[in-house]
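Regression test case RT-17, inverse folding.

Input:
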């Protein structure tokens, strides 16, 4: 409970669509980085690796340009990037082996805890397909929320509240349709998972200075702006072509 309360205080400082941190413009354009061939019979967009508890990377593990996104699964600005920027990111940069892409949950809305905990329960291979599906359905899920819903769930203990939001909004059903069992879903809402996520959020705030979503880092340098246009400029400045 103490960790959750600390997390709640951190979330009060965060915003969907905020500047995300100590923004800096992209560095001067670098020499173009080389492309790389994926493993035989695979595409780089089908190569996944777990990089931390609840964190998954897509693409060439040795890509010279490493992209990390701190995102909220309910944030409309994150949803806009997911639905307009992720496809060209994969097609132009991840598929060439120049860029790898890692997603890390960062919460800005009360419902985000439940969505993150259940989404992070996906297998390494299913993580990004499920993340994509969550963003594809985000508008419909968000439309179910109103002040009465927030007031109804607010008194619940943290993990019960997290599950209640995921059930009510439709994320639990989405996970089931993706092949995750009821038993597996129930195991997502553990105290250990909550403690781990809370520690990760605290580190993002204290060390990375993340204060909004989406926040992008290209080779550990924060991108100036949450849009695909800003991110692509930063990737190209790092040498992606």
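Golden output:
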């Amino acid at each position: 409970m103490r960790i959750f309360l600390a997390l709640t205080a951190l979330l009060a400082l965060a915003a969907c669509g905020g500047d995300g941190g100590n923004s800096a413009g992209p560095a001067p354009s670098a020499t173009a980085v080389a492309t790389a061939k994926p493993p035989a019979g695979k595409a780089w967009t089908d190569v996944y690796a777990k990089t931390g508890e609840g964190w998954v990377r897509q693409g060439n593990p040795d890509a010279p340009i490493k992209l990390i996104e701190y995102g909220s699964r309910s944030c409309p600005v994150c949803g806009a990037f997911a639905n307009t920027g992720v496809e060209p990111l994969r097609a132009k940069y991840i598929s060439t082996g120049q860029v790898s892409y890692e997603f890390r949950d960062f919460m800005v809305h009360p419902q985000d805890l439940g969505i993150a905990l259940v989404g992070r329960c996906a297998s390494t291979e299913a993580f990004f397909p499920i993340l994509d599906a969550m963003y594809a359905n985000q508008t419909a899920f968000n439309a179910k929320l109103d002040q009465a819903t927030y007031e109804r769930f607010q008194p619940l203990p943290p993990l019960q509240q997290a599950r209640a939001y995921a059930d009510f909004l439709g994320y639990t059903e989405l996970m089931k349709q993706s092949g995750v069992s009821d038993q597996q879903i129930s195991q997502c809402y553990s105290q250990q998972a909550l403690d781990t996520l809370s520690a990760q959020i605290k580190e993002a705030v204290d060390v990375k200075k993340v204060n909004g979503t989406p926040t992008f880092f290209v080779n550990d340098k924060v991108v100036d702006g949450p849009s695909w246009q800003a991110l692509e400029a930063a990737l190209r400045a790092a040498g992606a072509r």
